[in-house]
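Data availability excerpt. The first of two example chains:
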Amino acid sequence: MADQRDEKFDEKEMEKREEKSSEEKSWEEKGRRDPVSAIIWAILLIYAGAILLMNNLGYLDAWLGRIAAALNLPFIADLPVWSVILIGAGFILLVEVIIRLALPEYRHGVGGTVVLAVILLAVGLGNQIGWNLVLPLILIGVGLSILLRGMIGRR
């Protein structure tokens, strides 16, 4: 009787291991099939960490000042650290959209990514340039996303 329980226990343990290994395999396969997402999320984390480190070391204000002078956009110099992170994340996600649209093997729905990018940009810029300008830009971004999806979906 004890031998039967041990055998059943061993069988259940083997099944759990097989399920776990198949889940791990599916994550690995997904990473190989769609490396763009993995790369973009890694870049986002590295970017956010670098901005926070620059802020903690006191380099962020000088860096933003140089960017503001180069682009002739003085409000950039006064951006808080989280606005810088959100704006950068929005631009990084827009780069992902461009990559996905340019490379057919990685092309799939980008509407959600565009909306997320626009929201991140809007939240990052909202207090600096005013919601009366940012809100229409959100609507334009969502409209462009729908338009792109319609144009690319017909191909």
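And the second chain:
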Amino acid sequence: MARQRGQGKSSSTTTKKKNAGPPAPFKKPPEVLQPFLETLDEKCVYITHIDSHPRDFKQKIFFVPTLMNIALTAALLYRIWYIGPYYLRIFVSVLGYPNETTMVVDEMEWNEIIPEVAVRAFNFMLDFLLFVFVWSWPFDFVIGGEHGSPIMWRWHVGFRDREVVVRRSRKWVEAAGDFVNDEGARSLFMSRIGMATSPMLINEKTGYLLMTADWDLDWAAMVDANDMVDEKMAAIEAFKLVVLLFHEEYGWLCVDTKTGENGEEDERRRQVFAFRDALAAVGKEALFYRWIEIVQFETSRPGGFTPDKQEKAAQEIRDLFSKEGINFDEFWKESVGQEGLATP
């Protein structure tokens, strides 16, 4: 990947604590992500995850802003076509060539002057607001800037059943302090990260809907990440829920979001949501709820969820899926990314 955005630090700065690793929950990112890190802005925090929502769903979500921006562009172009000649006549009048827009105040009554001035002031203000605040919307959607644009992203990546989503922190990070060494700043940082990486949020919303006051989508970084996957530079699993930040003493770091029981619970919840979405994509969402019912019934019976009951439930689930033409174990591995029967 040729694109470079990160401003590299001198080796003496980034290797100050070469032998002493960063404090928990920070750690060095996987080496396979190094080409990706070289494209990132060191002043920002990044979150990557894998969006496993069905391709059709992503297309429908993206169609809405596309249609809105097409309509907005058409309205703005119509406004230019409509009002352009009017402004041109006013400009020609200012240059000293009288026309129908020329106002000879000495020959006009107040009841003629006031309405004309009000109309011109309204037009000037309206077009000023359109130019400053509205025109940038379709421009950013199509052309964008340093971090790319939604159209550029979809043009290069297309719509996939599994794709890498990259979020970039907004301005809050500039005044947040030292996340690594300052305990107070670290606590606030981890709180923001916890909300942004909530399994409920990630599994309920496709990537395009994850823009908030704290996080923006980095379109160019998403193109880079998916290109790395396409070029076999990294497996897509390398981008599964990774939090990246740069520190003066340690260089690039990632955050261990899977510590303790909470991490295990979040991972289990992520698997369940991914499995549900995969079944919904093939029109078999009803099987998901039958799976839930079977496991919950067995776990609620007296004596607990013993190994014998687990085996019985697993076989019943496999038979249920087999009747619908689905191999449960293979489908689970494809949708979740690992083997093994999880219980919801």
